[in-house]
Amino acid sequence: MEEKQYLIKKFSEFYSKHRIDLPKEFKKREFAFVPFESIPEFVMRRHVSFESEEEFRGYVAKNVPAHVYYSSAYYENPGEEKMEKKGWIGADLIFDIDGDHLPIKTKNIASLLERTKIEVKKLIKLLKTDFGVKEVEIFFSGGRGYHVHVLDEDFRYLEAPERREIIDYLTLNNPRLFGNFPESNAEIRVKRYLSKKGIPERNWKKEKFIKSAIDALRVYIDAPVTADVKRLIRMPGTLHGKSGLRVTKVEDIETFDPFRDAIAFGEEKVRVRILKKVKMKMGGYEFNFSPGDSAEIPEFSAIYLICRGLAKI
């Protein structure tokens, strides 16, 4: 309980000091919140809408949230509780690249986040070269990955089946390869890749070469996020309740470091008791603790460890 009250206090201070930019056309969006009072249960308050930034700030000040979401969709009546009465207009095309969906196993969150960057770069390259996307924004999710928002309005009005076609293309889902039928997009991409790699055409049907091509070309995205035309996504600028990190716009994916660039709190010293093994770098500090250790550490790292369940006050 002491930890929850501490986090409520710190999150409240953050929201009182920082202006959160609302998404474009926010009056047409649904907002959703997970209040701290429901933690450790994940109880979401949905179907909230706002007419002004002041109204949003007042709501957050009164109901300090652990998590804040908004709809990728635009609605005529975003505050309606019944989905069929909201009046769907369109939805942003959004991709979620989460470390939990990658074909690797590691407990090192920093290494996992570095690996997700590779997928982000693959995704953006394909969106621009193969789909003609002109403008995207990248956001660190505050947790274990990144969100990519397509800004081109042409994609806003795609229905779910059309979005699933994009997903299938990016993920090489059920690729039809080298059969007695017209070439699929997947087959064209695999052949192009193998040709560029200098693999002789006579070897293209060998399983090891097909597998290497698919592994290199496939983008590991969370498909339901992209297919869902009424999806709730984390709101940029807000805090992630399981890390205390900020959902942060990424200007340069190559140099972005979540444990430096998404820190939301200061360096005031806080004494914590370590519950589990901790070995990490954050904000220019290195931390290496064992269960049972007591340590004074910067506030930003204390909040991170508490949110992760790795430490107590």
TrEMBL record:
Please give the superkingdom of this protein's source: Archaea
Q: Which keywords has UniProt assigned to this entry?
A: DNA replication, DNA-directed RNA polymerase, Magnesium, Manganese, Metal-binding, Nucleotidyltransferase, Primosome, Transcription, Transferase
So where's the catalytic machinery, residue-wise? D96, D98, D222
The biological processes this protein is annotated with in GO are: DNA replication, synthesis of primer
Recall the GO molecular function terms of this protein's record. DNA-directed RNA polymerase activity; metal ion binding
Similarity comment text for this entry: Belongs to the eukaryotic-type primase small subunit family.
> Under which name does UniProt file this protein?
DNA primase small subunit PriS
Q: Which organism is it from?
A: Archaeoglobus fulgidus
